[in-house]
Amino acid sequence: MPQQIVIIGNGISGITCARNIRKQSNDDIKVISSETEHFYSRTALMYIYMGHMKYEHTKPYEDWFWEKNRIKLVNDHVISIDTKSKGLQLQAGSSISYDKLVIATGSVSNKPNFPGIELSGVQSLYGMPDIELMNENTHGIKRGVIVGGGLIGIEMAEMLLSRNIDVTFLIRENEYWNNILPLAEAELVGRHIKEHHVDLRTATELKEIKGEGKVKSVVTNKGEEIACEFVGITVGVSPNISIIKNSGIETDRGVLVNEFFETNIPDIYAIGDCVQHRNPPSGRKAVEQVWYTGRIHGETLAQTLVGKRTAYQPGPWFNSAKFFDIEYQTYGIVNAKDAEDETSFYWEHEKGRICFRAVYNKDDETIIGFNALGFRLRHAVCDQWLQEKRKIDDVMANLHQLNFDPEFFDKYEREILSSYNEQTGKNIKSKNKKSFAFFNW
Amino acid sequence: MAQLATNNPSLSLTEESASQTIFQKVGGICIAIAILFLVAALSGVSKEYPLLFMIIIVGMFTLAAVFYALPYYKGIAGVRMNGIMFKSMTNKGAIAWIFAIVLTGFYIIIYWFPWMFGGLIRIFDPLSQLLANQPANQWFMYGALYTLAVLTMGIRFIGKYRHSRYHVIRTFSVMFFQLGFAFLIPMFLKKLNEPEFYFSYFWPLKYNYLFPSDVSSLMSSGNLGVFMVFWGAVMTFVATPILTYKYGKRWYCSWVCGCGGLAETAGDPYRHLSDKSLKAWKIERWMVHSVLVFITITTILLWLNSYYKGGILGSVSGAFAQWYGFFIGAVFSGVIGVGFYPLMGARVWCRFGCPMAAVLGIFQKFKSKFRITTNGGQCISCGNCSTHCEMGIDVRWYAQRGQNIARASCVGCGICATVCPRGVLKLENGKEEGRINDKPISIGNNNITVHL
After folding, report:
1. Is residue A368 a part of any domain in this protein?
2. What is the pTM of this model?
3. Which domain holds residue A347?
4. Is A311 part of the contact surface with chain B (CB cutoff 8 Å)?
5. Over the stretch A109-155, which tens digit does the pLDDT of each residue have?
6. CA distance B30 to A6
7. Are B435 and B404 within 8 A, CB to CB?
8. Given B77, B86, B447, which is nearest A310 (Cβ)?
9. Quick check: is A404 in a domain?
10. What is the ipTM of this complex?
């Protein structure tokens, strides 16, 4: 007897869950979303605005895919959940009943209480409606101010520049994303931001947004007034739990779940951005709003829903981003400041756009994390070394296995290794047999 | 919502940067002058001053291309795709349609009504006399313009992708092979009264090189002719399998081939127009392999016929060859293949019609070290790789499940790896073992060992 599985949210978490259920069972699957009819990649929103892609290019599956795989898409908004009768009330008026309910509602942008935040031309960036709004808000304007030095902020800066709109970027920290990136990396990215002629203002906070109906300027905590026609508020996101409130499902910052993504109410689960773990896996945060996390949640919960109860057991942390032209990858744990028992080796290319960091344990010298900016690392190798707790010396001798840059690109292994030997006083030799690996071919 | 995002007309209005506009204006003026002289040349007045006309027309087109390329050389290098989905020229707008019709018409005239270009062809006489020691015909003009397009748009391409040494090197390679092997050497051979031979084209793309008629006429033309037959046979039967085994079909399609060369350079602004649907992939497989079967049968029939001295087949095999030449050689590879660049992308011929690509693809799929490696779990499904794949491969479908890409049609241009914002894709030649990981491991999720 197939179960009725209803998933609220057609983002990466909900859709991954739906697909993985379908691969293993004959259950009835419904996915409800009011944002878009079909699953699209939220991470690609910036490219739609910049004209690299259209909305249709951001859909990872063709439109016929859903019917063929019997995943029913419901383009509607859930207004309430009745956990007793196991039913959902939809905005259009109909209701849907479920045997198992998956909440994958994602996040909402944080909207701090600045004076003037309600003015037209002030907005955040999270979903498709935001891109449409931003398109209207930035049409024909001269300057935009972005508030908040995180990943969305820098994307927004790149988006505005692509349409020749000047950008002032207000950052609370002393360097860009310095609450996550170690100082050297943060400085490197900061230089690159300025290189793109962004008016980067560090240690600066927004005080007030001025205007009449439409935004005309912002005032900073340093008393400076900056004329602008657009303000991007990019100060993080919070779990989207508005429809869950009053349903009896326990929430804190997000929907509270155990390691099986079970909420306090039987047959109701939650995954993705909207989740807050009661007992997060060691080394992980209770709320993790990342694409990859959402995907892994979806894969894992699908196992449970088809009868193979599976606990959340993520491997070593990884993440990536692109700061204008500089790619960033991180594997394992790299804190903004090395913890008590950690130390790190850092190398930076002389041109200041490429760097590498390896964090390791002071005592037993096992590897803890990698950061790379401006060149690519091989995920499979990083993952394996982190799980095996390789020694740093072994890592340095085998750097060539980490490299994932395209063929014919400059290789930095020798430079990194000699810098390591210089900094530590060791004499580690490369185990790369092809010492003249100019031609990767 | 979705509808709005797709059809919102205001998304199509975006301002160009000031410097880009100035360069484009100057470039536009150059094109206008070139077109004026082109029209004048058609009247026949150019016969009086062929050299002057050629310098002005070719020079103005070259200058225009350089001016359009200049913005890419300015500032910081990186992926520069801004606005391609908004511009009429690159988004199948009115300008793209006009350009497509002009290109298609150009091919129709040059194949079937070359006399219409009479005056224009004359301006290439001085160059043709210099290189080939004879007056120009429409094919000399075509070769000269083709080479010019590869060279000038190659300069643009190198500027656009100058942050990737892979693109810089392979673009120099296609420019070199087009200029040398597909233009200067064949013309120079004519000057020496040797057969006009293209050392960078082989059977089955240059199908007649293994037709009995060509083989016998080459063999009887002297030592160089014998070498040409030998070269053609060795490249087709020995070098092609070996090189494709080692490097994938890219060694030819995006490094040597002239068709590929034009697609990679002049066709770059249209690479995103290829159809990525599953349906298009099905059509592609049927078509490209049918063409291969057709040309193989034709070649075998011709040889049988030649062996039996026309005894059993009469003129049937000759008719086969003629029909192939008309439909595949002219209509498909020329008129549709290049004429439809601005509407269907630059690799229509390579993808749906080229029998050489079909052979290389079979090797690449089943016996090659080449693959595009997917970097574990780092894919964010953004779609840049699929969007900008000129061969219409849905690269993302593989990347997001952590699977390597080993597709027959991949020409190894490497743009997917370049536009990927997360460093997920890498073209490489490695061990055959583990090349096609069609049950990829989900890196980052320790309780799921295999992707279903």
Report:
1. yes
2. 0.94
3. 318-424
4. yes
5. 999 999 999 999 999 999 999 999 999 999 999 999 999 989 999 99
6. 61
7. yes
8. B447
9. yes
10. 0.95
